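Please check this today:
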Amino acid sequence: MDIPGLPARRAALRLIDAVLRRGETLDQAGHGACQGLREGADRALAKALAGEALRWLTDLDALIDSATAQVLAHDAKPRAVLRLMLAGWLRLETPPHAVIATALPLLVGGPRRLAHGVFSALVRSGAKLPEVPTLPAAVVERWGEAMAGRVAPALAVPPPLDLTLKDATTTGAWAQRLGGVSLMPGHLRLPRGEAVERLDGFGEGAWWVQDLAASLPARVLGAGEGRTALDLCAAPGGKSLQLAAAGWRVTALDNNARRIELLRANLGRCGLGADLVCADALVWEPMERFDAVLLDAPCTATGTCRRHPDVLHRIGARHIAEMAAMQAGLLARAAGWLKPGGRLVYAVCSLEPAEGEDIAAGLDMPRDPITASELPAGLAPTQEGWLRSEPGMLGDAGSLDGFFVARWRAG
């Protein structure tokens, strides 16, 4: 029987399983899990259900446990289906009868009566989620109660859409044209929902999608004025686009050929240029030194938890240690590729000190402190002259990704 909405829920179930059981990202799992789904509404529904279930997983499990006589195993299929049912009802506002009709078929041959009874009991009792998601215990232990308490409110809803403008002098005009707000020159924030490709300015390459925090590492290198810059681990290219637009002669390096082609396409759309190199930065050697090197290093990406709630459930101590070892190696190499007086910027979209502050503290080079005048209102440098952003820091202006940024100047 063809039940509208059932294929999307089946795909959502596969997405969550890929994250929790196999440690995949939602993006990695998306291709396989959504095979056979129609483009558009069905795929969007599957991803929205999976994302909301992961964002509120701890609280959904608490509701489920409150309505069962015996605790269901963490990986039991009835628990997985109930998570989707509750996410659909409490987060996507799907009517309970529609939730039941589209979810119980996922348990064919299984305990449908159990899932039906638990869900119905929670509906009758008027179950609610808290205003702020409860972070997983392992995350709270790693970050500490204070930091977890600051970050959690920013996870309650998916983030808005941030754009970086090619020409910062047009910020006011684009804000009026697109109906957005700007938190600093060259930045524009829009509500979620509109397809990016349909927005004014996309075809003409006037802007690209980039979280406000992700734009800061390139911003603190300033104007290029024809000087040379190396963007390491560059794809998909937001920082390369920024540097090229700011007048740098950019060499962009990444070890993924497919992502290099995406960077090439983004440069072409925006009418910007860069020399593209597909190579491993841990073995590659440049022919010349650079006036600036920007290393936005591979990391656990826990700072992107507003947009990618899967990181709350996939990342642990082993992942952090592996990334930190790679980051230290990359930073040491990058520091040797500067001309005298050149600037080095290191950044990670991680909330883990082991990937940020600890890595920066290990580099023996004169610091070039970041100043408050280089940052949007609501952010300030640390005592060391570094930047540490956290989701939720901007208050009423909205949130931003968690980033660590440090800057040095070669002797």
About this structure: The mean pLDDT is 94. The CA atoms of residues 349 and 403 lie 4 Å apart. The chain is about 40% helix and 15% strand.
